[in-house]
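Usage example:
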Amino acid sequence: MTGSQFGLGRLHADNVTLRYDERTISRNLSVAVPDGSFTVIVGPNACGKSTLLRALSRLLVPASGQVILDSRSISDLSAKDVARRLGLLPQSSIAPEGIAVADLVARGRYPHQSFFRQWSKADEESVIAAMEATRVTDLSGRLVDELSGGQRQRVWIAMVLAQETPILLLDEPTTFLDIAHQIELMDLLAELNRQGRTIVAVLHDLNHACRYASHLIAMKDGAIVAEGNPSAIVTERLVKDVFGLPSVIIPDPVSNTPLIVPKGRQVAPVVHLDTSARAGKERHRD
Amino acid sequence: MRAAVSSHLNFGRSVHVVRVLRGRLSALFDRLSIFIGLALAVLALGIAGLSLASGKYPIALADVLGALAGQGDDMVRMIVVEWRLPRVALAFLLGGALAMSGAIFQSLTRNPLGSPDIIGFSAGSYTGALMVILLLSGGYYETAAGALIGGIVTAIAVYLLAYRRGVQGFRLIVVGIGVAAMLSAFNAWMIREADLQVAMSAAIWGAGSLNGLGFEQLAPVAIVLCVVVPLTLFLARPMRQLEIGDDAARASGVDANRTRLLLMVLGVALTATVTAVAGPISFIALAAPQIAKRLTRASGVTLIPSALTGGLLLLAADWTTQHAFGVQLPVGVMTVSIGGLYFIWLLIREGHK
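Running the assembly step on the lines above writes:
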């Protein structure tokens, strides 16, 4: 279960060119997901991070090159075979109207079921375990339509967890959540990662990425600009390169990971340095 | 990790788990759906019995049962088994087939309007049939063939027009409604150009009717359904999985485009068969899956309850058009009325939300 002989891990993309019809998103891109890592992909809008995630999960077939899962080209594996090793939470999921939480979570069991085995003991146990891990057990019989955004997102994650895959890919799982629910969700993902799952998430919030990721991939224009441990790679220069955003980076007072403080364009640098110094003092007082 | 697992999961509704042969066969049944299904079947049998008993020669229900069991007098047996039974069986089967087709398309488009009569297949069948009736002066079988070809060609055209890296539900509906409107205009023009006599018979065909149907039609319908229905039921799981969105379904192991294409072929086959035999009977495909969904309080359309509802609706509509007005009307007239009532009910219900 240790992946290829090159030590690239179970999941990696080799020289892939990713394209929607005539629009090329990435050319000759290579990327490896370290086993057991919490990998976070960041980058500006339309930089190709979701596209990369789609390629890694077999939803998009590369125009050239290949994605390797467990030493085999992912396109040679059947959809079900991939779904038993790798789970994906896409951005665009639809909860059918009037579906109960347990029913939606149970849909995650699809790759383990067949026409004759529609509801095995393992199915039931996985669904119960997934709902416990995401703390939605109490919502079990409720309709998904009636839940809050944060609860609903936990239910979707429960569905992917019920799939029981060692690798989990998530496309912007925290979008549309308020700050408290964002942190709650990131903590849940970190916990799942500690339990041994490899996590790959596309995130918008750089500071969340820095705090939670063990491996950060920064993308721009379909290419990888930098990758590695956030503390090692995140610099003011990188943020400027990738996002075109001037910033100041200070140690996160809670986690000691890099904390990006954007300068913004309206504020004059002198005033800004002043406020950042004051903000620093206030933080010290805490 | 799974030490503290309780034995049952709360689905918010009463379910029944079946596991036999050491877990090699397992299924999860929804109790309400089973109860509703049984109730629908019993009601359908009741109306079937009533239909067998009523007509120009009313026959007592006991004699109907006797005739079905092969007893009683020859005359009664002939009326019940040879005259009335094929039509009653066809009403149930055709209604069921339409409803199943509607359920397939409503599930694929994730939209209650995504039924084959809305997205142009019925209009296309009518165009095919009209061409045969008006241009080739064809008889029943030629008309049936024309309807079959018209429906299938329209389905392919709608599919191709809506195709963009796979077919997305909403685009299919919009394209289908557009195609249906154009075909309806063309159909109206064709009828207007035709002789009065021919135009009238074409219009009667266009309403959809079970009049004059017998064993010759029952046999081919039964054969087609014996192939199409099991295949459809086999695809029920991936169909249901597609309802959570394409990406999520694919990521959980569904071959989305292949499943969708297969289901569309099966759905078109069901509608085309019905239209070829009885003309475009409208609104059963649209209304039955939604009625069944409400009755079973399911989260999506379901195939078997939909089929039973559709069978029941067409049986009831056929009995009404034959016996309630003193004159025999085409059953399509009644199903259109059902459709109207359905829309009123839907509007009131949505209005209260």
